[in-house]
Amino acid sequence: xxxxxxxxxxxxAPATQGYVLGVDIGGTxxxxxxxxxxxxxxxxxxxxxxxxxxxxxxxxxxxxxADIMLQEQGxxxxxxxxxxxxxxxxxxxxxxxxxxxxxxxxxxxxxxxxLLEEALHVPAAIDNDVNLATLAEGWAGTAKxxxxxxxxxxxxGIGAGIMLRGxxxxxxxxxxxxxxxxxxxxxxxxxxAPGIPGALERVSGGEGIRTVWGExxxxxxxxxxxxxxxxEIFELARNGDEFSQSIVEQCATPLAYAIHNMALVLNVPxxxxxxxxxxxxxxxxxxxAALQRxxxxxxxxxxxxxxxxxxxxxxxxxxxxxxxxxxxR
Amino acid sequence: xxxxxxxxxxxxAPATQGYVLGVDIGGTxxxxxxxxxxxxxxxxxxxxxxxxxxxxxxxxxxxxxADIMLQEQGxxxxxxxxxxxxxxxxxxxxxxxxxxxxxxxxxxxxxxxxLLEEALHVPAAIDNDVNLATLAEGWAGTAKxxxxxxxxxxxxGIGAGIMLRGxxxxxxxxxxxxxxxxxxxxxxxxxxAPGIPGALERVSGGEGIRTVWGExxxxxxxxxxxxxxxxEIFELARNGDEFSQSIVEQCATPLAYAIHNMALVLNVPxxxxxxxxxxxxxxxxxxxAALQRxxxxxxxxxxxxxxxxxxxxxxxxxxxxxxxxxxxR
Lengths: 329, 329
Known about the structure:
Two copies of one chain form a homodimer.
Chain A: H1 2-17, E1 19-25, E2 29-36, E3 41-48, H2 55-72, E4 80-87, E5 89-92, E6 97-101, E7 108-110, H3 112-120, E8 124-128, H4 129-140, E9 149-154, E10 158-164, E11 167-168, H5 201-204, H6 206-219, H7 230-238, H8 242-266, E12 270-274, H9 275-278, H10 281-293, E13 301-304, H11 311-327
Parallel strand pairs in A: 1-4, 4-8, 9-12, 12-13
Antiparallel strand pairs in A: 1-2, 2-3, 5-6, 6-7, 9-10, 10-11
Pfam families (chains A, B): ROK
Protein name (chains A, B): ROK family protein
InterPro entries (chains A, B): ATPase_NBD, ROK
C-alpha cells in the first residue's frame, strides 16, 4: 500500500501540470518524446517507418507509442495535454496539413493535426522537420537566445529554416528556405525536373558528394567502390587522401556560395549547420573556409548544431509547449 | 481684401491637418515633396547634389526647399508636422543615422534624422532609398496591397527591398537585400574588393551591361563606341541587333538566377523590378524569360515598377506619414 500510495502521489503531482508529446516522423524512423510542459523529456521511443509509411499506420504507431510512454510513467491519457509533430515535407501549419512529402514518403494533403487530435483528444500542431530543428536550435541549441538565424539541414538533401525576429519565416506556399534548388557557380544550370533533387543538393548534399566522387573516379580511370559512403569520403579526406580532400572542397564551395547568397538576402548573424552531412567537421571546415574566401560584411558566423539527430524531436516538443501555452493564454 | 481673406481661409483649413515633407537624397538629385498627411502631394522641388554633397549643404538645401514649397502654398513652418528622408546607403533607422553611403557620396555616420529635426523642429524618420521605393510600391505601386514582396532596384547597382508580413526586413547590420554581391553562374568567383561593385552588379547592373558589351566588342575585334549607354544597348537589341540581343540575354540570366535564389529563400509571390535599367522592357522581358527557364514552385511573378523615379520620393512621404501616425497613436 505504501508503494501504491507513493506512486499515486508521484503521478498526481505532475498530472496537475500535464505532459506534451513530441513526434518526429522521419523517412526511416518515427521518434517520440514525452515531456513535461516545461520541456523536460521523461520518456523516449523510436520505431521504424519503413514499410509502414501510410498515414493510418504512422498514426497507429504514434498512439501506441504515446500509450506505452504514459504507462511507463504511471500516467494515463488524461495527463497528455498537447502534441507537436513534424513531417519531412511541405506543411501548411495554419491548417495542420502535410501538403506534400518527398516521393519516398508519398504523403499528399494529409490533415495530420486533425488526425492526431481525433486520435488522442488533445490539441496538435505540426510543422516540417527542418523548421522544428530550427525551433530546437533557437531554444536549446547553438542558436539559443538568437532571434535571427538560419538552420541549415544538410543530409541527403539541403534545406533551411529561417528565424527572423523570433518567428519562423514560412513563405507564401510554405516553401521558404528551399535552398537545395539554388544555382551558384559549380551547380548545373539545367532546369530542375520533378522528383529530381535541386541543383545545389546534386553537388553539395550527401548523395551529391558521392556522385561527384564517383564522376571524378570515372574521369580519372580510377577503380571506385560503388558502395562508398559520404562519411567514408570525409574520413578519407581527414586521413590526408588528397583526392578525397579535393572532392570535399569542390562540393563545399557551392554550399558556401549558397550561404553567402542567403546571408545577402537576410543579413542574419548566424547560420547553424545541422544534419548528418552538415555536422561533419571536415565538411563544416571546408564550407567555412570557402565562405571566408567570399567574405562580405554580411558574412555570418557558421556554427555546428549541437543537438544532432535530436533536433527535430526537441523542436516537436517545443512546438507542443508553445501550442499549449497559446491555448491557455 | 476679399482675396487676402480667401487666402487665409484656404491656408487655415489644411493647417489644422498639417503637412509632411518627403526627401529623396540621391547621387545626383535632391528631390523634395510637400504632401498632406494623407499623402496627397501638393508641391515638388528638385535640385542637384553635384558639388554640394556634404551633409551641411544638403541640409541647407532641404530647409530652403521646404520653406519655398510651404510659402508657395501659403503655409508657414508651423504647418509642417513630420519629415521622411531617404539616402543612398546603409541606414540605421532606429537611431536615424546614415551609416555609410557609396564612395561617390561619401557620408559616414551622419545623424540625418537628428539634423533634420534640429533644422525644422519636427520629428524625422530616415531609411535607405531602396527601402523607401519598396514602401512606395506596396502603398501606391505595382505591389499595392501585398504584404510580402521584393522590390528590386536595378540601376548602376543592384539592391533589394524586402517586405515580409507588411514590414521591411532590415537585417542585423541594416544590410538585408544586398543582392548585388550574389554569386551565380555567369558572375565572377573572385572575392569582392572594397569600393568595387558586387559580383552580380558587375554583370547585370547598368554599368555591368556596358562592360560586358565592351568586352565582347574587343573579343570580336569590333569597333565600339566607348560612349555607348545601357539605354542604347537596349535600343539596339529592340531594333533587332543580334549582337546586342545576345549581350542583353547574357546579362539578364545571372539576374534571373539571383531572383530565383532569393525567391527560394523568401518564397514571396511577387518581385517588382525598378530602377532605370530594371524597368527597361527589353531587359525585363529577358530577365523574365531566363527566370521561366529556371521555373520552380517558388518562382515569383515578375512585375515592373509603375512609379519610375518617383518611387523613393513617394516612399519618403509614406515614411513621414507613418512616423506622424505612430507618434499620434
